[in-house]
């Protein structure tokens, strides 16, 4: 469900990226998301202690990791297809599995390793490195993938008892501050010339926000709150290597959205990659089932 929701959010983000800058979207979305989250928490009676929990050391570090991931991810979205951006970002399960096995000592198991590695092969098939289909923009989400893995290992090991609303609050607050900070930095540096003309989405000035823009920003704010809670809950409840591999389903969703919204037809390579990714998820599911059914001594 989290992967599906993220894929829908990213369609909105890609369609909306020509209107406002990346940093403006992050800042204004945060301005809406933080009060929305606090209001929902208050209505559910879960507001007590939320600020103290949200702004602890580990939740903030986790939020910084996730913010770096999303900044790298969304910076690349206007320039390459959603499927390609997603495939590059989903090298993260390899990092998650390695950290799970060698840092937090959670068993991945033979089928789990096969599933993760098969998923990696699917990603390579989708990206087609070394060919004309490869774009240097994919390096941004690959970099973000490493921070994504660090974020979810931190969730599993250091944020196990932190309420989901608090984790979502810290994440959206850090994203808000990142949008404001980079916007102020660009105002001071005043980038000009070909760089701004070529990449206004990243280096341009803030645009006028129309009423329709506010509606889209409110929708993105709602997505941010829900996604933050769902992902945090998943990584609190299950081993990171299992959850990370099932996040591969995102690639299936965005392949469909590429066809429906952006008229990007799937290639043989993309179809092959998605089949490998789905197979990887099924292998991990089988591995989890075997682990759950193993007799206890």
Q: Could you explain the architecture of this structure?
A:
This protein has helices at residues 2-16, 22-43, 50-54, 57-76, 82-89, 92-102, 110-127, 139-158, 164-189, 194-198, 200-203, 211-237, 240-246, 249-262, 268-293. Helix content is 77%, strand content 0%. The chain contains 15 helices and no strands.
| Percent in helix | over 70%
The number of distinct helices, counting runs of at least 4 residues, comes to 15
Number of extended strands:
0
The amount of beta strand, in percent, is under 5%
Reported for the largest beta sheet, the result is: none
- How far apart lie the N and C ends? 35 Å
Whole-number radius of gyration? 19 Å
- Write the element-wise H/E pattern from the N-terminal end onward: HHHHHHHHHHHHHHH
Shape: globular
Arithmetic mean of pLDDT: 81
Helix/strand-derived class? mainly alpha
Spans of at least 5 consecutive residues whose pLDDT stays below 50 are 292-297
């Amino acid at each position: 469900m989290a992967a599906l929701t993220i894929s829908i959010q990213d369609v909105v983000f890609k369609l909306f990226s020509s209107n406002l800058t990346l940093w403006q979207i992050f800042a204004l979305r945060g301005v809406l998301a933080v009060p929305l989250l606090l209001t929902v928490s208050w209505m559910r009676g879960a507001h007590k202690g939320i600020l103290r929990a949200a702004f602890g050391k580990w939740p903030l570090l986790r939020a910084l990791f996730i913010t770096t991931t999303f900044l790298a991810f969304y910076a690349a979205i206007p320039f390459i297809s959603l499927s390609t951006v997603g495939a590059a970002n989903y090298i993260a399960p390899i990092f998650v599995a390695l950290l799970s096995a060698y840092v937090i000592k959670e068993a991945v198991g033979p089928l789990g390793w096969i599933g993760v590695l098969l998923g990696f092969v699917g990603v390579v098939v989708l990206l087609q490195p070394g060919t004309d289909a490869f774009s240097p923009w994919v390096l941004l989400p690959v970099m973000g993938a490493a921070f994504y893995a660090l974020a979810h290992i931190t969730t599993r090991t250091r944020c196990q008892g932190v309420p989901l609303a608090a984790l979502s609050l810290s994440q959206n607050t850090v994203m808000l501050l990142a949008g404001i900070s980079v916007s102020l930095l660009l105002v001071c540096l005043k980038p000009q010339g070909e760089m701004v003309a070529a990449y206004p989405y990243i280096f341009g000035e803030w645009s006028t926000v129309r009423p329709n823009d506010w509606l889209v920003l409110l929708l993105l704010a709602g997505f941010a709150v829900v996604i933050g809670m769902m992902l945090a809950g998943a990584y609190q409840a299950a081993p990171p290597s299992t959850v990370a591999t099932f996040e591969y389903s995102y690639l299936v969703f965005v392949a469909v959205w590429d066809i429906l919204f952006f008229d990007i037809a799937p290639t043989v390579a993309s179809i092959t990659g998605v089949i490998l990714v789905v197979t990887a998820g099924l292998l991990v599911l089988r591995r989890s089932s075997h682990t759950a059914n193993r007799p206890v001594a």
